[in-house]
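lol ok so funny story. i was supposed to be doing the assay writeup but got distracted and ended up predicting the structure for this chain instead. priorities right. anyway since i did it might as well share w the group, maybe its usefull for someone
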Amino acid sequence: MQQNFTAMTPLEHLYLFAPENDMALAFGGKYYTPTPAAQGIARDLSLLPIWYADEPNAQVWAMQQVSPMMQETLNALGITAHAMSKPSRNIAECHPWGWSAYIVDKFTRNGIARDILPDDKAIEQIRKLSGRATTCTIMQQLRYMLPHIQLPPQPVVLHNDTEVDEYVTSQPSTILKAPWSSSGRGVWRVNGVYDKMTARSASGIIRKQGYIMGETWQDKICDLAMEFYSDGTATQFAGYSYFLTDERGAYQSNILASNDEIERMLSQYIAPATLLEIRDALCGITTSLIAPHYKGYLGIDMIVYRDKQGQILLHPCIELNLHMSMGMVARIIADRYLAPTTQGTYHVHYEPDTARLQALDQQLSTQNPLRIVNSKITNGYLALTPIMSDTHYLAYINVKEK
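and the output, tada:
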């Protein structure tokens, strides 16, 4: 007797760019409404995961479409991820930019099975670990594991106005940070005076988020991060991120270079042996602290700074980013798609005038035409996300021969 077999649709991995997740964590609940600015960057850069999705034929839940020209580039680089305006029903695993109750609700409302998503207890643990108080735990463990390495003063969790007052007036310059914020917001410098503006801002954050972080201000030389990947059991080093920020601490761009090249750049400040010790220690710390509760990429922001005696030192944990990051996107692009003879930069650019954004795109593509050889970029400018009639944010890379 003839039997009929129904072909099983292969299960796919779903990616979502959701930069508003940091503020959803600050809100705490699932009914968060992103600000217009957050909605704008989420829309304009919604195709970004196409460039970092790890699995063949991954779905990217996007609000923009892949143009024919962009598809040609994806094909030339061997990228098989594809955009979907809504997620399909055959999803094996979800990979949002970060996790929160808001993101879980977004997935479930759009047909994703609840049993493949983190449960409420897991989300609450991720939210707690995402708070900046986790840097205190990491720094304490680094002091214990690496007593021979000079580290900056310990960050402090401040729970009320009196503690904030005493902290900021105890030293010439401090940094106050909200437990959950993004892109340099909720972070400001205080120069030894607990004035009305500082008191009002700090009180508001403590009332809404439960505490505020205090750190000693450091004379920063440069920004970097160590990126890691957690498989749910252990973490492993995923690479370096060497990046630039503006005066508020908001992200601007990344250097596109190999890990060895970034180590060489950093060696003018910090001995490679010190970087390796800190990297190994952080692998151990995040394996015990993070891995049991989280699967995905995470980053630890650092700075190279100059102390009062003029020594150049490394601050190994300015912030934990328990989510995908622009630095990790840059790391993946450099490792997967750039020829070894090249170096470049990765940018996220904001332009309130779309016409000026289009002009920038045209200028850069004319000045440095894209060239791909054997599925590797050997030279050129590449817009990673499309420019539509109302686009204000653009992610792009600019690559040249060394």
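Confidence is low (pLDDT under 50) at residues 1-7. The chain is about 35% helix and 30% strand.
back to the writeup now i swear
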